[in-house]
C-alpha cells in the first residue's frame, strides 16, 4: 500500500483543519500536529485552552523550549509517523509551523524512505493583510519554500470542491496511486 505525507501549514484560521477534515472524509487519512504534546504540557501549566495572541506566544515559546530541551515535538511526530506506517491509512497530514522543524521532520522521513511527501501552505485573503500574532511560530509560516500553495479565498461551501480538486491534483502530480 502506498503512503503519502503532506506537511501542512498556514496562519491561524487559514483553513488547514478544514482542508484536512475534508480529505479525511474522502480518503483513508489522519492528521497529527507538532503542537499536540505542547498543548498537553501547557494545560498542566495553567493554560485555559484559549488561543489569543498572549497564549499563542506562550505556546510558541514553550514549544521552542521543548525543542531545545529534548526535541519533544519532532519526537512525537516521528512516533505518530511510525504508527501511520503500520496503519491502513494512506495519507498523513502533519501540522508543523516552523520552517526549521518542517525541514527536520522531512529529513527524518526521507532517511526512512518509506513514503512520498509534499509540503503545502494554505493561505487566506486576510493573510495578505499585515497581521501579526506576536510569535515566531505563527508570524513566519511563509519562511519556507513549499511544494504547493492553496489560496482559500471562498466560503466553506465553495472551498470544498476546490479543496478536493486541488488535493487530487497533488496526488496526480506526485504519482500517488
Describe this protein's structure.
The chain is an alpha/beta fold and 177 residues long. The chain has one domain (4-173): Rossmann fold. 50% of the residues lie in helices and 17% in strands. It contains seven helices and five strands, in the order βαβαααβαβαβα. A five-stranded parallel beta sheet has the order 2-3-1-4-5, sandwiched between helices. Helix 3 (53-70) packs across helix 4 and helix 4 runs parallel beside helix 5 (99-112). The longest helix has 18 residues, at 53-70. It is globular, with a radius of gyration of 16 Å. The model has no long low-confidence stretch (mean pLDDT 92).
Query: Major β-sheet, in short?
Result: 5 strands, parallel
The percent of residues in helical segments reads: 40-55%
Distance between the termini: 9 Å
Helix and strand succession? Answer: EHEHHHEHEHEH
| Count of alpha and pi helical runs | 7
The general outline is: globular
Q: What name does CATH use for the topology?
A: Rossmann fold
**Beta-strand fraction estimate:** 15-25%
Amino acid at each position: 500500500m502506498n503512503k503519502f505525507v503532506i506537511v501542512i501549514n498556514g496562519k491561524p484560521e487559514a483553513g488547514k483543519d478544514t482542508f484536512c477534515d475534508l480529505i479525511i472524509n474522502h480518503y483513508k487519512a489522519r492528521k497529527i500536529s507538532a503542537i499536540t504534546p505542547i498543548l498537553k504540557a501547557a494545560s498542566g501549566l495553567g493554560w485555559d485552552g484559549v488561543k489569543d495572541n498572549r497564549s499563542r506566544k506562550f505556546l510558541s515559546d514553550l514549544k521552542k523550549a521543548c525543542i531545545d530541551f529534548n526535541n519533544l515535538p519532532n519526537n512525537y511526530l516521528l512516533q505518530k509517523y511510525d504508527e501511520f506506517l503500520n496503519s491502513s491509512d494512506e495519507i498523513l497530514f502533519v501540522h508543523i509551523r516552523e520552517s526549521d522543524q518542517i525541514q527536520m521532520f522531512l529529513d527524518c522521513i526521507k532517511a526512512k524512505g518509506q513514503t512520498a511527501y509534499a509540503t503545502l501552505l494554505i493561505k487566506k485573503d486576510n493573510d495578505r493583510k499585515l497581521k501579526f500574532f506576536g510569535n515566531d511560530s505563527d508570524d513566519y509560516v511563509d519562511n519556507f519554500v513549499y511544494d504547493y500553495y492553496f489560496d482559500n479565498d471562498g466560503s466553506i461551501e465553495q472551498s470544498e470542491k476546490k479543496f478536493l480538486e486541488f488535493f487530487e491534483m497533488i496526488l496526480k502530480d506526485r504519482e500517488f496511486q
